[in-house]
Each structure stands twice: as structure tokens, then as C-alpha cells.
Design goal:
This protein is α/β, with parallel strands linked by helices. The chain is built from eight helices and eight strands, in the order E-E-H-E-E-H-H-H-E-E-H-H-E-E-H-H. Helices cover 31% and strands 17% of the residues.
């Protein structure tokens, strides 16, 4: 124990406690730091599921872990997409099941996820200087419900969810996906056939 030094003791006879933790979260607004709505994968392990998991099982997974989203991974555990718990419960599932001629229980995460190719990322450094409004503006302009955040090593280290911003700030968020090609336009249009 010779490598360590003894700490200097303080007088505690007055018994005064410092301010206790405030159970109420501070009110957020669009000018609050974007880091306040960042889901950091280094602080909390995100819910992950394989692309072939049924949406029924995926919904159970999000409920048990109190998560608003699932990272969809392939057999090599590589991220291939994201889906929200709201999407797993939406009426779009029945429409999709009908289009694919599947029972609702046969629809998998692969069918409903937003593929990684349709998402974008910003650096953690950019987010550290940004406000929530900046992140939301970026998502609205790009037509994305999720904004991925990358580390200095260009690894995905977190995400910001538009639905979470809407919940925390009690504001409506209206993000319309932007089609990147003719096939995506056709997917957005409901065909009578």
C-alpha cells in the first residue's frame, strides 16, 4: 500500500447534504443541446435483432427492454437497418402482409425496417455543438425518422429519433420519406392490384 497516498479528511459535523438529484428532468426545447436526445450506444446497449425475426417477437423485445427502436442486423451482426416500435404496431403491417401475401406473424424485420442505405449519419462532434432543432431540421430535410451518429473512427455510436424528440418536447413532428428512385416512388403509391 506504499504506492498510494492517504486522502485528507474533511469536517462533516454539520451534517449538511448537498443538493439531491432532481427527479424531474429539465424541460427541453428546440434550442437544448442535441446530446440531450442522443441514444448513445456506449451508455446503453441498444436492442438488436436479426432481420428474420418476426415483428411479433420484435415487438415483445422492444417492450421488455423499454426501447423505441430496434437495430436490425444480419447473420454477421452487421447493422442493415432500423425499425421503430411504432412501425411494428402500425396499420402498415397489415397492408404490407397483404401485399406480400403473408400472415401478419410471418412479416419480419427485413420487411419493415428502414435500410441503412436510406439513413444518414452525422459525427458525434457535430452533434456535440448542435441543438435539438438542428438535428430535427436535418431529419425533416432528409425525410428520415432516425439520424445515426458516428464516432471519430466512423463507427455508429448512437442515434437520434424524431419520435423521441416529439415525445420529449411535446411537439408534432411531420417527416415525409423522400423517394430516392422510381422503385421507391412506386412503393409509396398504393396500387389497386
Amino acid at each position: 500500500m506504499n504506492k498510494f497516498k492517504e486522502l485528507r479528511l474533511q469536517d462533516i459535523s454539520n451534517g449538511a447534504l448537498s443538493n439531491t438529484v432532481n427527479e424531474v428532468e429539465p424541460t427541453l426545447d428546440l434550442t437544448s443541446p442535441a446530446l440531450k436526445v442522443l441514444n448513445s450506444f456506449t451508455s446503453k446497449d441498444p436492442v438488436r435483432a436479426h432481420h428474420d425475426l418476426s415483428i411479433v417477437d420484435a415487438l415483445k423485445k422492444t417492450s421488455s427492454r423499454c426501447s423505441d427502436f430496434i437495430l436490425v442486423v444480419d447473420n454477421d451482426e452487421k447493422l442493415i437497418g432500423i425499425t421503430s416500435s411504432a412501425d411494428l404496431q402500425s396499420s402498415k403491417i397489415m397492408i404490407l402482409a397483404q401485399r406480400l401475401n403473408l400472415h401478419r406473424n410471418e412479416v419480419t424485420l427485413q420487411h419493415v425496417m428502414t435500410p441503412l442505405s436510406s439513413l444518414a449519419g452525422v459525427s458525434l462532434q457535430s452533434i456535440s455543438y448542435a441543438c435539438i432543432g438542428d438535428a430535427l431540421q436535418t431529419m425533416e430535410h432528409q425525410g428520415m425518422m432516425f439520424l445515426l451518429v458516428t464516432s471519430a473512427e466512423h463507427e455508429i455510436c448512437g442515434l437520434i429519433s424524431a419520435r423521441e424528440i416529439a415525445k420529449k418536447l411535446h411537439i408534432p413532428v411531420n417527416i415525409n420519406p423522400i423517394a430516392n428512385g422510381f422503385s421507391e416512388v412506386l412503393q409509396q403509391v398504393d396500387h389497386p392490384h
